[in-house]
């Protein structure tokens, strides 16, 4: 039986970046679903099976911190791995993210091979 592809939800208001990431991550064997703010992401997560969330912090409607906090508070979504993918590189934002319960923090611009490695690591840890 073929193993089901892992589904990643990419959440970012930069539509061009989302499209580039989606294309690249599909090439790495992932299914991709796109959202452009945290509220849209929550609506999708409530309907679809998501294996990992890759999210920006600074977005309209609901930012990445609010999204992560909402996912961690909900019994059905609290174990979904979350990776912040952001231009915000200060220690305070990193600490705030980790205190909410994110799994990893990647600063833009990023290396796509490194990102795929971090995604696989977060998925492997979650599977244990």
Give a quick set of tags describing it.
5 helices; alpha/beta
What does this structure look like?
The structure is a single chain. With 128 residues, this protein is an alpha/beta fold. It has five helices and five strands, in the order E-H-E-H-E-H-E-H-E-H. It has helices spanning 15-27, 38-45, 64-73, 91-100, 112-127; strands at 7-11, 31-35, 52-55, 82-86, 104-107. Strands 2-1-3-4-5 form a five-stranded parallel sheet, with helices on both faces. The longest helix is centred in the last third of the chain and has 16 residues, at 112-127. The radius of gyration is 13 Å and the shape is globular. The model has no long low-confidence stretch (mean pLDDT 92).
Characterize the largest beta sheet: strand count, sense, and whether it forms a barrel. 5 strands, parallel
Radius of gyration: 13 Å
General form: globular
Indicate the mean pLDDT.
92
Question: Which segments are poorly predicted (pLDDT under 50) over 5 or more consecutive residues?
Answer: none
Helix-strand pattern, N to C? EHEHEHEHEH
- Terminal residue distance: 21 Å
Number of strands: 5
Structural class label:
alpha/beta
Task: Provide a short characterization of the protein structure.
The protein is of the alpha/beta class. Helix content is 45%, strand content 18%.
How are the SSEs ordered, and which strands pair?
Elements: E1 7-11, H1 15-27, E2 31-35, H2 38-45, E3 52-55, H3 64-73, E4 82-86, H4 91-100, E5 104-107, H5 112-127
Parallel strand pairs: 1-2, 1-3, 3-4, 4-5
Helix pairs in contact: 2-3
């Amino acid at each position: 039986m073929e193993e089901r592809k892992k589904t990643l939800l990419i959440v970012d208001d930069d539509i061009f970046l989302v499209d580039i990431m989606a294309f690249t991550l599909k090439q790495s064997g992932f299914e991709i679903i796109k959202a452009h703010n945290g509220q849209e992401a929550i609506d999708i997560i409530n309907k679809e099976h998501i294996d990992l969330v890759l999210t920006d912090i600074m977005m309209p409607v609901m930012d990445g911190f609010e999204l992560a906090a909402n996912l961690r508070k909900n019994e059905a979504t609290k174990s979904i791995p979350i990776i912040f993918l952001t231009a915000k590189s200060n220690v305070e934002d990193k600490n705030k993210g980790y205190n909410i319960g994110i799994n990893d923090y990647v600063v833009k611009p990023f290396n796509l091979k490194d990102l795929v490695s971090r995604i696989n690591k977060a998925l492997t840890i979650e599977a244990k």
